[in-house]
Design a protein that fits this description.
The protein has 234 residues and is of the alpha+beta class. It contains six helices and ten strands. It has two domains: 87 residues, Cytidine Deaminase, domain 2; 121 residues, Cytidine Deaminase, domain 2 (3-Layer(aba) Sandwich). The two termini are 26 Å apart. Bound molecules: tetrahydrodeoxyuridine. Tetrahydrodeoxyuridine binds next to helix 5.
Length: 234
């Protein structure tokens, strides 16, 4: 890997300021994170939040963060404090390899995998696990919700799956499935709808409900009359 290639995976059509970092877990595994902007400012996913959440969703604990230089990385201070991360500026990342983001699954296995994934969610505040699988040409990319000491820095399952797909360099996002353990009806929150709209604007989305039933929808129905303008992209 090299920083240029990793940074180029960023999705920054609005400000054209790509950012990337790599989190090293206690297991020794490496997790790449890139900046993923959203047309709605606060829904932008910072590189460090993405990388730490991939590490946590894997059952690993963030131990250090590798940076290209000392340049400002949003949310860095929070995550460094949260996990007592070592910060290391590393220019050469040639020998660093990442695990596979996608797994191969038959579509008939999606529901069971979503149920298994619910155990990987970190829900210290809500006790409300959510799992997601994003279908891509390389296979399915998983996501679970991750909560940390500060509620506002958590990430939903759907957004984690989208951020992981992009950070691992998979460019085509095909459909999304999600599962909840509790609640009457599984359905993405407003923030996820906005992010889903940006990356999966007209795709199938399957809601597996806690009672074992499924409803199939289209992402285009989740955010009617949404805000967009091609004049905003650089
Ligand atoms: N959550 C998701 O993961 N996805 C959604 O679309 C709805 C909400 C998570 C966030 C938080 O960890 C918990 O569910 C309760 O809001």
């Amino acid at each position: 890997m090299n920083w240029k290639i990793l940074e180029q995976r960023s999705y920054t059509p609005y400000s054209n300021t790509p950012k990337a970092c790599i989190v090293v877990g206690k297991s020794g595994n490496y997790y790449p994170g890139v900046r993923i902007e959203n047309i709605s400012f606060p829904l932008t996913i910072p590189a460090i939040q993405a990388a730490c959440c991939f590490c946590l969703a894997d059952g690993d604990t963030p131990e250090s963060v590798l940076l290209k230089d000392e340049n400002y990385l949003e949310q860095l201070d929070f995550w460094v404090k949260e996990f007592d991360l070592k910060k290391e500026v590393v220019t050469n990342i040639e020998n660093i390899q990442f695990g596979d983001a996608a797994i191969s699954l038959e579509s008939s296995q999606v529901k069971n995998r979503l149920i298994e994934l619910l155990n990987e969610a970190i829900t210290i505040h809500s006790d409300f696990p959510v799992s997601a699988l994003l279908m891509t040409p390389s296979g399915y990319v998983s996501g679970v919700n991750i909560e940390v000491s500060d509620w506002t820095f958590g990430l939903c399952a759907e957004r984690l799956a989208i951020a992981k797909t992009i950070s691992y360099g998979i460019e085509s996002l095909e459909s999304m499935s999600l599962h909840t353990l509790k609640g009457e009806f599984s359905s993405p929150c407003g923030a996820c709808r906005q992010v889903i709209h940006e990356h999966l604007p007209d795709n199938e989305i399957n809601f597996f409900h806690a009672d074992g039933t499924l409803s199939v929808h289209y992402t285009s129905d989740l955010l009617p009359l949404s805000f967009s303008s091609t004049s905003l992209t650089k």
